[in-house]
């Protein structure tokens, strides 16, 4: 963080980046073939583009896939592995030579966030490990707590999990907070990561984010439909406690770490990185992917014009195809 400590607020400082296209290194546009009609949502009266709208959409889409007792289209094993003193739950499928770790977003877990990848990515090419970070999903106990370095801790748990499962080298797909912990893992363990696919991540907390937290913090403003999947997963009390913890720790990162989530890790990411940019992501403004693209050495950004925060769920077929093409190329080059 030392390098950036002179900046009063990173978000303000780097806002100009989103207007400055000369930072683009390799950038591709993707056409979303899916043309689903927009859903009508209840309660909170969100307008398109508002953070709650995106959250609601994520919840609705994940609730479609969230029924944990539903038989899966393919065999997925639910397993536990003790790492760093706790039992980490993970889902495993596939028998391919290429190990791929999936890292979920805030409050999410393997089954809520990656049902479409667990069922959709090739089981012949990949061995897929989707992890529930500690305190999320079925990686309880312990309950989750919120040290300011909670994403570093998730990164260490994930690296330890893959080591314990005897995967010395693997690729990672990381979404949102999972993208952030994945960038930390890759920066700290460059020798272990074959390639990286990230989307919905943010490497710093900006003024914009602080305003966003104010809008989404109060659970009373969430519609029942929005809350229900989390309540089903965690129960009302634990969900409320976790959400408060997550919002608080973002503020702590802003105040105590000058907003730095994982900026220092970016130059240490040596592997080839595919950054999928949901152009309509209402949670993560465009300055964030542009910043990542600028600071990750070997980074290709693909713009998804219709993509929102949950693009891997909404456009799962296209997303999986894009990820597979990238993963396969990187894997063949390292052989
Ligand atoms: N990182 C959050 C997640 O994992 C999404 C998010 C990003 C929320 C930025 C707010 O300002 C924000 N779902």
From TrEMBL:
Superkingdom of the source species: Eukaryota
Pfam (any one): Abhydrolase_1
Gene3D superfamilies: alpha/beta hydrolase (3.40.50.1820)
UniProt-recorded Gene Ontology molecular function terms: serine hydrolase activity
Entry-linked SUPFAM superfamilies: alpha/beta-Hydrolases
Domain annotation AB hydrolase-1: ranges: 99-231
PANTHER family (UniProt xref): VALACYCLOVIR HYDROLASE (PTHR46331)
Protein name, as recorded: AB hydrolase-1 domain-containing protein
């Amino acid at each position: 963080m030392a390098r950036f400590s002179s900046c009063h607020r990173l978000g303000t400082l780097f806002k100009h980046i989103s207007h400055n296209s000369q930072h683009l290194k390799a950038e591709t546009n993707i056409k979303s073939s899916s043309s689903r009609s927009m859903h009508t949502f209840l309660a909170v009266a969100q307008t398109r583009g508002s953070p709650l709208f995106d959250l609601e959409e994520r919840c609705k889409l994940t609730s479609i896939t969230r029924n944990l007792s539903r038989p899966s289209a393919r065999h997925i094993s639910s397993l536990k592995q003790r790492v760093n003193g706790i039992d980490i739950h993970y889902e495993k499928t596939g028998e391919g030579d290429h190990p791929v770790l999936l890292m979920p977003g805030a409050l999410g877990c393997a089954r809520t966030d990656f049902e479409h990848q667990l069922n959709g990515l090739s089981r012949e090419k990949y061995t897929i490990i989707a992890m529930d970070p500690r305190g999320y999903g079925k990686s309880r106990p312990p309950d989750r707590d919120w040290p300011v370095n909670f994403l570093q801790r998730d990164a260490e748990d994930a690296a330890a999990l893959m080591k314990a499962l005897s995967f010395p080298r693997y690729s990672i797909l990381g979404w949102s907070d999972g993208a952030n912990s994945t960038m930390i893992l890759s920066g700290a363990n460059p020798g272990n990561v074959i390639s990286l696919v990230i989307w919905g991540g943010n490497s710093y907390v900006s003024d914009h984010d602080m305003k966003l937290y104010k809008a989404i913090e109060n659970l009373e403003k969430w519609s029942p439909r929005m809350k229900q999947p989390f309540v089903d997963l965690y129960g009302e009390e634990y969900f409320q406690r976790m959400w408060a913890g997550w919002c608080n720790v973002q503020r702590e990162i802003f105040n105590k770490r000058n907003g730095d989530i994982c900026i220092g890790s970016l130059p240490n990411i040596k592997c080839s990185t595919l950054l999928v940019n949901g152009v309509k992501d209402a949670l993560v403004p465009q300055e964030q992917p542009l910043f990542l693209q600028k600071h990750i050495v070997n980074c290709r950004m693909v713009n998804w014009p219709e993509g929102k925060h949950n693009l891997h769920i909404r456009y799962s077929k296209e997303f999986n195809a894009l990820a597979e093409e990238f993963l396969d190329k990187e894997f063949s080059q390292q052989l």
